[in-house]
Amino acid sequence: MSHATLAEAAADLAAGRTTAAALTEAALERIADPDGEGGRAFLVVQAEAARASARAMDALRQAGRAPSPWAGIPISIKDLYDEAGQQTRGGSKALADVAPATATAPSVARLQRAGFVVLGRTNMVEFAFSGLGHNPHFGTPRSPWGRDKGDRATGRLPGGSSSGAAVATADGMGFAGLGSDTGGSCRIPAALCGLVGWKPTAKRVPLTGTLPLSFTLDSLGPIARSVACCAVIDSLMAGEEAWSPGLPVPVAGLRLGVLQGYVTENWDAGVTSAFEAALSRLSAAGARVEKLVVPELADIPKANATGGYASSEAYAFHRGLIERQRDAYDPRILSRILRGGQMAAADYIQLGQDRARIISAFAARTAGYDAVVSPTCALVPPALSEIEDEAEYGRINLLLLRNTSVGNFLDRCAISLPCHKPGEAPVGFQLMGEHGGDARLFAVAQAVEAALAA
Questions:
Q1: pLDDT score recorded for residue 148
Q2: What is the pLDDT averaged over residues 312-317?
Q3: What is the pTM (predicted TM-score) of this model?
Q4: Number of H helices and number of E strands within the chain?
Q5: What element of type H or E holds 292?
Q6: Are 141 and 264 in the same domain?
Q7: Is the pLDDT of residue 152 over 60?
Q8: Active-site positions?
Q9: Are residues 172 and 266 in the same domain?
Q10: What is the share, in percent, of the chain residues with pLDDT greater than 70?
Q11: 25 and 146 assigned to the same domain
Q12: Is residue 321 located within the same domain as residue 363?
């Protein structure tokens, strides 16, 4: 049951084969396992509140009044969502003295109203500003792949910035984790931990009650064990009617555009092998797999050359805090934020114009495709030791972020699915839909997920 999907957990709850209290206690035991990753994956464990919530859901279900089929299923939330009575620290010591939130973020409150049990707050890259998953303040959770249980100092990066959300979900510490995605922060850790990560069209899920990285690019989404799991949580976070599976979309006839150009550079051999095998399986199942050349993609790095939205908008938010708490920041994160202070207003305006042009060109070239696909990341999980060198830290971070950040820049929905064989290094298969085409992309992703599992 520790690695079940939401649908499987809901079915067991409905049939009386388990209880919310049992699911919650099992998750808390994994978090507390001294040989596990719980101590790095979670910054705050809300054990007693979670137990009380689980007991309440069991009582409501026994009385026939469960608020939803998922009532009593435990999940985690990233340390940038507000919860009434809890500090929102963003994985940083710079906010160690911040006052507890007075209200809960709408996206979290909606899940709580559906009966989900919040286990606690998960670790993350400081202020969400890296794709590596590294946190020098609270420790770095390890990817499930390649762990050496005999030496806690070794291991591989989990991806970021939603590192704890992914590791907790992969290790059975809850059935899903809420993350955020500004340049790939749900999809990268999902890819490096063998999970499904979802980025909605920006602003579809309200950002109210969350710490920002980039007001323009931020999106809120889940990391979970299946496409359907992500769809359920996403619909509730967006305040929509709870998602339910419709008629299955056949793989045969799907038109998939395989992005060419700079997103294909510097792939790890394991990524190349897994991605090409996935394309072959989809083609054999009847999908129309076509190379897709979009010359305007090469203009994205040029548009971001003066710092991009993340640095400039992060600086606008952080400059007062930096004046007071500069020494509390991770120096690597601080330097990226400070770069935003050097961006001229004219550069920011030009960025917006360039972005609009590239979005328009991309939409025209991808019309008619059911999804645009690529590897989620160019690399399998790098070793933690690789980023000790400053140059390698920067190189690996940019490579992990490169493919996923395209979806954020273009303001499209996107999802990462595992496509590696059991026992091999985890590799993510990314599908990108149209702006506002979230429901359609979920349907396409389900079809691809089923074909890759066949």
A1: 66
A2: 98
A3: 0.98
A4: 15, 11
A5: strand 288-292
A6: no
A7: no
A8: 78, 161, 185
A9: no
A10: 98
A11: yes
A12: no
